[in-house]
Amino acid sequence: MDTLRQNDPAEIIAADKAHVWHHMMQHKHLETTDPQIIVEGKGLRVWDITGKEHIDAVAGGVWTVNVGYGRTEIADAVRDALVTMNYFAGSKGSIAGARFSQRLVEKMPGLARVYLANSGSEANEKAFKMVRQIAHKHHGGRKHKILYRNRDYHGTTVACLSAGGQHERNAQYGPMAPGFVEVPHCLEYRAADQGAPTENYGEWAADQIEQVILREGPDSVGALCLEPITAGGGIIVPPTGYWDKVQDICARHNVLLHIDEVVCGMGRTGTWFGYQQFGVKPDIVTMAKGVASGYAAISCCVTTEDVFQQFTDASDPMALFRDISTFGGCISGPVAALENMDILEREGLLKNSEEMGAWFKGQLEGLMDKHEVAGDVRGMGLFAGVELVSDRETKQPADEAKVQQVVAHCLKNGVIIGATNRSVPGYNNTLVFAPALIATKDDLGRVVEAVDAALGDVFA
To answer: Radius of gyration (Cα) for the chain, nearest Å?
Structure first.
């Protein structure tokens, strides 16, 4: 591997341990062990600095590399674009920005305008600011509250954490921003924990949102922000009846529906966007990770024309959306995103996500016959989760430390998987899978074999 030959692994590891502050890691552990340093990727496989090969079943660790590693067509397009025009502020236009925005909204009937930024957190911040500004401009400041769902996650900034339903992610970062209000989750497997009925759970869960709106006062609620499928909170696919009723509730109470597609966007579930699986018609859609598959930083806040027009009053100097994203002006983002969309279409990766995802889910469900600890399998497309329990009858969550041991066992055997981690108190017990959309049965079969062996050893 050329990357290894050009660098001394010991030197790189020493520099990393001395100077890098890693994401989501307790660095005390690095006093006695080395960090894993990923140096090369091709397709669904990555190699670390020791030369060990792994199958990556989480698309870059945070569900991002949708088209796989080593895509020279994206890298070449970005390189060619940057030597011509690398950057200009978003107050000006660019060829790539115009072409990408047009192509994007063609995939999103009913939506019309694209605000470019550089991360999912930032895209959601834009949406929150839009809702707040609409409240001040058109509702006397009253409809400023933003509802979010328990277990959902929308980003790392204080405002996004304030709209986050993963309370271990929020802990120690308060006080949170005011005006964000939580609604209950919609995990049918945990319906009994909510005192919910066994029938028509989806409608019941949606009704809980309306109860919050009525409690807060409909004239104070401006938007409802939801993931189409709850991602880091446990891979929760909303049950039948949920989305139809949610849309009706939002329409009746004049509440903007904001769908956070940061994880599900760009084919992850088998459609361009997760909300399209449920017939949802949102007012605002945010996206990031898979937009350029990690080849460049880009995120988008996409709105209907109606939302956009609420900022076009030339008689009011304060009416324009007074916001800027410095790196939203990087040309590399929309260039990479256009090439990413080309690959998704040319190689039929949405269909592959649907077909391979169904096969993969079936294989994971087969593990339930072998391992009592596998309590529930859920997901859609190449996005799946296995909730681990210590008792199937009571659904007592498996110990979080053991869940992490399963992840470590798979890693030792050359397969990278994920798990809910320091997110939902008492419920960090779901294994998570989001491989690149190029995955084959051979790839996914190896992942299932690794999980099978890990469950057998850890929970023996």
So the answer is: 22
